[in-house]
Amino acid sequence: MAPQPEYSNWQELMDLVKSAAENDQHELLLTMMMTPDEREALVARVNILCELMKGDLSQRQISQMLGVGVATITRGSNELKAKSEQEKQEIAQLLLK
């Protein structure tokens, strides 16, 4: 029988991140799992969501501000549109300072 990976789906990964956070090891885990470019892209994604939720800037303005393509902004916008109002409120509470 062929060896199986330790983690096979998104929920298992989320459980790992939660466990790491509970043990104050999330920074170590996330830093080890992502390259510097991936970490930079994740920061951009968080900022995309923040700006979309604020609603003050156009997608083109967000793209220019963050140095990412308009298509990346559109994908973030589509993800946000797919969420319920409650989910949007929850993410806003997490992200917006």
UniProtKB/TrEMBL annotation:
Transmembrane segments: none annotated. GO terms for cellular component: cytoplasm. GO terms for molecular function: DNA-binding transcription factor activity; sequence-specific DNA binding. Keywords: Cytoplasm, DNA-binding, Repressor, Transcription, Transcription regulation. GO terms for biological process: negative regulation of DNA-templated transcription. SUPFAM superfamilies: TrpR-like. It comes from the Bacteria. Residues 59-82 bind DNA. It holds the Pfam family Trp_repressor. Its main location: cytoplasm. InterPro entries: Trp_repress, Trp_repress_bac, Trp_repressor/repl_initiator, TrpR-like_sf. Belongs to the TrpR family. This protein is an aporepressor. When complexed with L-tryptophan it binds the operator region of the trp operon and prevents the initiation of transcription. This is Trp operon repressor homolog.
